Every structure is written in C-alpha cells, then in structure tokens.
Amino acid sequence: MSYDTRAGDRSVNNSPNEADSEPAAQPRLFSSSVEQTPSPKGKGVWIIALPVLALLIAVAAVQTAPVIHQAPPPLQTFAKQRSTPPALPPKTTRQRAKATEPDIRVNVTPGGVQSFQLDVRGRCRLSSLETNEELASETDLSRIMVTSTAKGLKLGSRQYATKQIEIQPDQSPSIRVDGHLYRGRMRLFRRADGLISAVNVLPIEEYLASVVDSEMPTKFPEAARQAQAIVARTYALYQVRLADPKSVFDLLSSQRSQKYLGVEYVDNSGRRLAGESESSRRVVKETRGVVCTLRNELFCTYYSAVCGGRTINGDEVFKDATDALKSVPCEWCRESPHYRWTTELSRDVFQQRATSNNTSGKKAIPIRSVRQTSPTGTGVISRFELDAGKERPSVSGIELRDRLPPGTLHSPHFQIKLEKDRVLFDGRGHGHGVGFCQWGAKGQAEAGRTSAEIIRHYFSGIELKDLGY
Ligand SMILES: [Zn+2]
C-alpha cells in the first residue's frame, strides 16, 4: 500500500500554538486519579437535563469500541432552530438509537520514525492488516523496541513479514509509544521510505478528552472548554471526511492538526504529566456528538490562540476556508500576553531571510526600506513591499513567519520598523488568527456567554448539530 502523507503535507498549520506553548495547557503533573478513572465518566455542572444524562450514561456503558474504522455518521438535521438563542442542541432518544460513535485514526509519530519504544500493559493480540491474519495472541509487549526491516516490522526480537500490524490490547488505556500512554488500539506501518508510523485508533470522544487539555489550559472557564471540545470535534470529523481512501490516518497528533498528548506522557525531563483530566472528560461528555455545520455540512473549524482584536478572513490563510470563517471583531482576548507583542531581529538575519526560504550561506540583500501594503484592522494578513534597490519584492506576514527564525513572529499580523542594526516587529495575536479565538473564548465565558454563543461569534451563519451517537 502506498503511504499517504496527506496530512503531513499541509502547508499551513491549524496550530494555535505554532511557535511556543500558548495557550496549550501548562504541563500538569500526572495525578493518580487519571489512572484510577481511565474512562470518561466525569461529573460536574451539567448543561443537559438530568433524565437525558441518565440515558447518556447508559449508552456509554453499553458502548463497545468498533474494530473497523468507520466514517462518521451522516449529519442529522436537528429540530428547527429555536427562537431563543444559542444553547447546545438537546439530545433525544431517537437520535441516540441511530448512530455509532466514529473512530478516529491519529498518527502519533508525525513525519515517521526509525524506531520507537513500545510498552503494552497486560496482554494483547497482534494481527496483520494486510492479510487479516492473527500473528500472535496473548502476547507480552512490555518495553520493547519497534524497528523496521526489509521485509516488515520487528517487535523486540520477533520479526514479522508484514508491513502493517495492529495491536489490540486486552484493556484500555495500556499502549505506550515513546512515553505517551494511549487509549484504544495502535497500528504500525512500515512506510515505503523505511520509516515507521504508529497510528492510534480510538473512539473520537476519548480522543477529544486529551485534545481539549492538550490545546487549552484546564484553568480556562467551562464554557470556553466546551466550545473548544465542539470546535475540535468538528475539525477532527471534517478531516475524517476529507481523508484520501488510501490514507492510513486522519490526523496528526501534533499542532499541524490538533495537539493530542494521550492519557499521560513523560516530558523531556522525565516528569510524568497528565494529557487529559476529569475536567476535559467532563466537557467532552457534556458536548458529546455536537458539531458545527454550515449549510448542513461539516466545515474546517480553524482556531488559533489569540486573534489580537479581530480575526483574520479564512481565505487569507487557508484554501478550504468557507464563508463561516469571515473576519469578526474580538476584544475578548485582551488579557492574553500576546494580544500585542514586540520582537526584534538583527538586520543581517532579516536581510538574509526576508526574500527567500534559502538560508544556506545566502548573502544578505540590502533592504533600504519596508512599506506596508495591506490595510490595517480589516481582517487581512500583513503584506509588505521591500525596497531592495533594483528589485521590490512583496512578502506576506505568512511568508515572513516561515522564513524568519522560529519564534520571531507570533502571528502573520504585524508592522515592521527598520533600524540601523536591527528590525523591530510590532504585532498582534498568536497563531494564524482565523476562526475560533481561544483566549477570546476565555474572555467571553468569563463575561457569562455560553459555549454556543461563543462559537457562533467566531463562525458566521453556522448551526450546532448533534450527530446523535
Ligand atoms: Zn480574539
């Protein structure tokens, strides 16, 4: 099977935190409660009527993880919009009975790896995805290295003549890949280039419990985190629909898609940290199955950390942006340290990199002045004309972000001031600035807005629908 790197080839990240960690959750030391309560059964402030909750819990209890990857169920139009605003769609028995929770396939080794450490707690079953043949049952895969060979894959000392292996553990969560503990199953693929991809397959709601904490701090208000869950669910299911049939995964675990750390993980300094929490499991459960739709279709719900006062028009940055992603004002993210920012760079480095991606031994092109050609405050990214003598190349804020050293520019929205030996950047926001503003969601939630109201502010003309699983 040819290996599809579709998701890895995206030119622009969805990442709200591309250069650094804002506003993704600060690392939280792993608490034993995570291990003691591995399944999402959080309790808290429920926004759904109690009888419906009882039904939800009953449905969750009998739910079994489907073995075959399934496409998401078709959208079901929810009862005509109520005249009162935004609340999450109510859940009904009729809808619950119809659909099955879809699985999601997450590539947890973006870019591929030569080898990695695998540790499965308890017993597991191995099968080949190429032949469906069972390779081993009741196998012990504790602390082994996975490597690729000419013929297939090697797990510890055992060689398998297949390039695609699925690991189905007896219990979940129990699979660790390079220190990250994941729920569900793991698929191993030996790629054509000899590298290995590990793809975690699990029910989408379990995946989201980690995404919410990986993408948004636990201290952000409940309504903001509920909104994050809905936006992340829609983003993920849209990617499933978009996936090439030949692709072996739907999303990456990195910020190129959505950050997904797993149930827990070990950081570079050896600390054991939580990748999900009681709180994230609760907000996912409270919004179970709810997605954003535009004209009854899923769309790509881009989001970023801080818009800096006005979101950017989606089509400024993304080819697949819909009209739901039009620029809207947002003063709700003022509290973020990146609402406004300044950075500087040596003039030499700027002149070396501003006009080209080629950084290897390139001579600096003297740039006499910089003229901003984009209007300010209109939802467009910054664009500049560089006066380099004979040539006057144009560059966009996105291009400069790619070309200048990582971390120099927090967003594609800034002004440039040339000085004798240095260049000053005066910018706004963090991340690409399109769609849902995470810090803005925090501000709106603190002002008493609901998750539905927050989402509708950033995505124009959309509806919230319950997929009914
Ligand atoms: Zn904002």
Description:
The protein is globular and about 70 Å long. Strands 4-3-8-11-12-1-13 form a 7-stranded mixed beta sheet. Strands 7-6-5-2-9-10 form a 6-stranded antiparallel beta sheet, with no helix packed on it. Helices cover 21% and strands 25% of the residues. The longest helix is centred in the middle third of the chain and has 21 residues. α4 packs across α6. It is built from 10 helices and 26 strands. The chain is of the alpha+beta class. The protein has 3 domains: 197 residues, no CATH class; 80 residues, no CATH class; 89 residues, no CATH class. The site of zinc ion has 8 residues, from α9.
List the helices and strands and how they pair.
Elements: H1 32-36, H2 50-62, H3 93-98, E1 103-107, E2 115-120, E3 123-128, E4 134-140, E5 144-148, E6 153-155, E7 158-160, E8 164-169, E9 175-177, E10 180-182, E11 185-190, E12 196-203, H4 204-215, H5 222-242, E13 251-252, E14 264-266, E15 272-274, H6 278-286, E16 290-294, E17 297-298, E18 303-304, E19 340-346, H7 347-353, E20 369-372, E21 383-387, E22 394-396, H8 397-403, E23 414-418, E24 422-428, E25 436-437, H9 438-446, H10 451-458, E26 463-466
Parallel strand pairs: 1-13, 18-25
Antiparallel strand pairs: 1-12, 2-5, 2-9, 3-4, 3-8, 5-6, 6-7, 8-11, 9-10, 11-12, 14-15, 16-17, 16-26, 19-24, 20-21, 21-22, 23-24
Helix pairs in contact: 4-5, 4-6, 5-6, 5-9, 5-10
Bound molecules: zinc ion.
Zinc ion (ZN) is lined by residues 306-307, 330, 332-333, 437, 439-440.
